[in-house]
Amino acid sequence: MTVVATNDDTPRASLAGPADYIALLKPRVMSLVVFTALATIIVAPGSMNPVFAFTALLCIAIGAGAAGALNQWYDADIDAIMTRTRTRPVPSGRVTRQEALEFGGVLAFGSVLCMGVLVGYLAAALLALTIGFYLFVYTMWLKRLTVQNIVIGGAAGALPPVIAWAAATGSVAAPLPWLLFLIIFLWTPPHFWALALAGSEDYARANVPMLPVVKGARATRNHILVYSLIVAPVALAPYALGLTGPIYGAVAALGAAAFVVLAAMLWRASAQAERGAALRLFAYSIFYLFAIFTALAVERLLGFAPGA
Length: 308
Prior knowledge:
By secondary structure, this protein is mainly α. The protein is built from 14 helices and two strands, in the order E-E-H-H-H-H-H-H-H-H-H-H-H-H-H-H. It is 74% helix and 2% strand. Strands 1-2 form a two-stranded antiparallel ribbon. Strand 1 (3-5) and strand 2 (11-13) form a beta hairpin.
């Protein structure tokens, strides 16, 4: 059992268990990151060796987990204020900030090193860029500074398909991985704003300038609706350009239509129904992203994708 020091420098036994270190990795976020990367590897041209594919996915997963741990190290002060995050390992006291920093730092370095040595240096450089962008640009700078935090910061979460493409092909000189990046980049603001709208009091207490706190609920609803209308044609772009097949096209079209409908329902919702409508849109947005990347992979495996 590890012995750590309390705030008064009195040594105590660490309260952290394996589940706490798993929680530091933000496994739900990690699962979405890994899935988008897996689908991209499947659809990338050629056939990647399964061992190298697994190694690349493992490095991406560990890198995403490292970013989550480093985020919780830096944000421990505001996490302790917010109801949604105060039970996380660091603000609850089960893991110290130093432990979270060391854990995240070791994982970040190890994931990038392994990606470079075992898979490819381009993929490793992109993985390092993603971790660094999430920590230094989003977490340390934008999150507490500007209402555009999640708009710009969303680039970090959108890069895994590009990393996966680089791992599979050794290049990123193709339109499809960047279109997938753009889809996730534009999907992130309405996805996160829906959650922020439902928990705006939390962000206000923590003094985090999320859109509902700075601009209010009505402006947030307007932004969500506009972004949903932008995401729809962008999600269809891979099909329109002949880069994907009919399965992806159908799922992207129907899913985007449902996304717009739920965003419109939130836009029209009464103040009393706002939170429920926001949480429904948030939950659906996760399903939608999983759905279009599932369609992307399935049609490639079934031979319906161009070049399959």
